[in-house]
Amino acid sequence: MRRLLLIAFSTVLCLGMFVSAEAAGSPPVTFPTSPKGLKAPVTLPSALDATPKYVPQISCQPSTPPGIRKLRALVLETYQEGGAGNTARKCNEGTSEHADGRAWDWMVNVNDASEKKAAADFLAWLTANHGAKAKRLGIMYVIYNKKIWAVYRESDGWRESSGHTDHIHISFSWNGTRGNTSFWTGELQPTDYGPCIVFAGATAVIRSTPNTKPCPATTTPVRKHPNTLIQLGSKASTVVSAQAALKVKQTKVFDADTRVAIRAYQLAHDLPITGTLDDPTWASLFPSKATDDVTAGYTAEEAAAYGLEHYGDSTLREKSVGKATAFLQLALGLAPADRNGYFGAVTIDAVKKLQADAGLEQTGKVGKSEWQVLAGV
Fold it and tell me: pTM score, two decimals?
């Protein structure tokens, strides 16, 4: 009886181990027991970086930032296999961290024995010990040979995916993208929350420096426009009208020159610098076609009186966004192209001029005193 119980227990234990292994998911290729890994350029701390959370594409800033450049160089030097592949891509190819500059494709074909071996070494090293190296590098997930592994779902192991038989796709957190992780710096770094979306429905503001504060809630645009959001690479029929308004060559394709022109236009007209044609930018380019304008029907004088009544006890300053800023811009007499509900350089200059004319301190900020001057009180 004791022997039968031991056999039964062993059977259940083995079955349980088998189920767990299956539940965790098998890797895309056979992993070596002692994989060849990457050597960190610094002494690593004992503590691990925080587990990267999944952060989808939110901006249009295709590039090859420092963290990706360094990892690409180290991988190619270490394994001497595969091609450099893609980093940045156009922004109209569906949601992809490539458009954020947060992804790299290492070209290692599963049908090439030496490349497959290099891929197996790297992936085994990266995912071992519950993804310790992925955390140190700020890697969110990898895809290879129709399988995906994510550090934020590490207990799920390798899950079914599609494609990616000729390359490993690697997606990074913002810390990993910028190279601000313990693997490169030898220290744990604050979380980089990345660029923030200002207006709902738009892409995030382009930025190249870390953002260590969580993004505020998005704001409803103060004006909308019938045209839809379009980004780098688009061939939408509306591209040519934007190019005409921006005074760039009408190629009918949202190309790099158009993106440069849009960024310059946004900077000059108090718009979040997204590099995309979003609602606020369309409404600024073509104010007569704007819809849902929160200041519609108000004169500058009425806007000043409204602002004093509703916003007199608050302070508006650089990067203030929303209805209050839109009423301020109308009250200041800004051109329709500049009344976008975003407190930028044009608004700051107008406020400082108002303060100078009224004998107020030129802070560029707006409180009750400025509203009173605008309202003639």
Answer: 0.87
